[in-house]
Write a structure and sequence with these properties.
- The chain has 2 domains: 2-213, 3-Layer(aba) Sandwich (Rossmann fold); 223-286, Alpha-Beta Plaits, CATH 3.30.70.
- Helix content is 35%, strand content 27%.
- It has 11 helices and 14 strands.
- The protein has helices at 39-47, 68-72, 90-100, 105-118, 134-145, 164-179, 191-194, 214-219, 233-240, 267-273, 290-306, and strands at 2-10, 13-22, 28-32, 54-59, 62-64, 75-78, 152-156, 183-188, 199-204, 207-212, 225-229, 246-252, 255-260, 282-285.
- The strands form 3 sheets. The protein has a 6-stranded mixed β-sheet with strand order 6-7-8-3-9-10, with helices on both faces. A 4-stranded antiparallel β-sheet has the order 2-1-4-5. Strands 12-13-11-14 form a 4-stranded antiparallel β-sheet, with helices on both faces.
- α3 (90-100) runs parallel beside α5.
- The radius of gyration is 23 Å and the shape is elongated.
- Keywords: ATP-binding, Nodulation, Nucleotide-binding, Transport.
- InterPro entries: AAA+_ATPase (IPR003593), ABC_transporter-like_ATP-bd (IPR003439), ABC_transporter-like_CS (IPR017871), ABC_transporter_ATP-binding (IPR050763), P-loop_NTPase (IPR027417).
Length: 309
């Protein structure tokens, strides 16, 4: 997939602003960002469901939206909200989707049987979809999205309404698909899910603010992240908030996670920045994570937006 200058405007609102993407084949590519960051709008444009205001999109060698109709049979799309038929059984839902995708009667029977077994739904095939649990609905929706064996699968925040165990199981299924050659583009706002992706794109207010592998992105912040353990963490946080060398301070339980504006910061530098708020405080340099990456990327973008033209 190749995307250049992708932009979508809704009147005066710029929902997606000049996004460039390169998504390799058989890759789990993550879209990370808060609600309203432009993830869903971008996915709909890539699928051909929404016409971009500007930009060039090539998906599986096809130009979008010009060749969107030809693309439909080669992609799968799973939305955040369960979109199958509540009053049809599990099997009936899959059979209907297979028919819509043009599978023959024999191929439909074979494929549905295979998916029911793979996604542990064979003992529920006569159950009405509307009576299933969140995790079961999620597995059914994924089975429906791949009933026609698409080359590319779009998933729009697919795990937002399920429990942690179901989320882990779902991601195992995604990697099975990727190992078999399916390219997967999945949007999420969960940092732990983002860490599972082969590559990531961070979106903020419609802007692409960072992209790369999780390791590439976190390695850029080495030497800038610390954990502080103090008897009075709130007092230490107040001392650090607003300091010119400190980019962010987040309290996690009784600890503070501190992100500095530059690397090569020493423990003594940080203790001085805290103003010796607590002489017994422990300060430890720690590895950066994707939340740190997101904070840096979004703050940099906000600062550029605030600069006068």
């Amino acid at each position: 997939m190749h995307v250049r200058g992708l932009t979508k405007r809704f009147g005066a609102l710029v929902a997606v602003n000049g996004v460039n993407l390169e998504v390799p084949r058989a890759c789990v590519y993550g879209f990370l960002g808060p609600n309203g960051s432009g993830k869903s709008t971008t996915i709909r444009m890539l699928c051909g469901l929404l016409t971009p205001s500007e930009g060039d999109i090539e998906v599986l060698g096809l130009r979008v939206p010009e060749q969107a109709e030809a693309l439909k049979r080669r992609i799968g799309y799973m939305t955040q909200k369960f979109s199958l038929f509540d009053d049809l059984s599990v099997r009936q839902n899959l059979e209907f989707l297979a028919t819509v995708q043009g599978l023959s009667r024999q191929d439909t029977r074979t494929r549905v049987d295979e998916l029911l077994k793979r996604y542990h739904l064979d003992d529920r095939q006569e159950q009405l979809a509307g009576t299933m649990s969140g995790g079961q609905k999620q597995r059914l929706a994924l089975a429906g999205a791949i009933v026609h064996k698409p080359e590319l699968l779009f998933l729009d925040e697919p795990t937002s309404a399920v429990d942690p165990e179901s989320r882990r199981d779902f991601w195992e299924k995604l990697f099975e698909l990727a190992d078999a050659g399916t390219t997967i583009l999945v949007s999420t706002h969960y940092m732990d899910e983002a860490e599972r992706c082969h590559r990531l794109a961070f979106l903020d207010s419609g802007n692409l603010v960072a992209d790369g592998t999780p390791k590439e992105l976190t390695d850029k912040l080495r030497g800038r992240t610390f954990v502080i353990r103090a008897q009075s963490p709130r007092q230490a946080k107040q001392a650090l908030d607003g300091h010119p060398d400190v980019l962010s301070v987040a309290q996690i339980g009784n600890e503070l996670r501190v992100l500095m504006r530059k690397d090569k910061v020493t423990v003594d530098d940080l203790r001085n920045a805290a103003g010796h708020a607590d002489d017994a405080m422990e300060i430890e340099s720690v590895s950066p994570n994707l939340e740190d990456v997101f904070v840096v990327a979004t703050r940099k973008h906000a600062q550029r937006e605030e600069q006068p033209a």
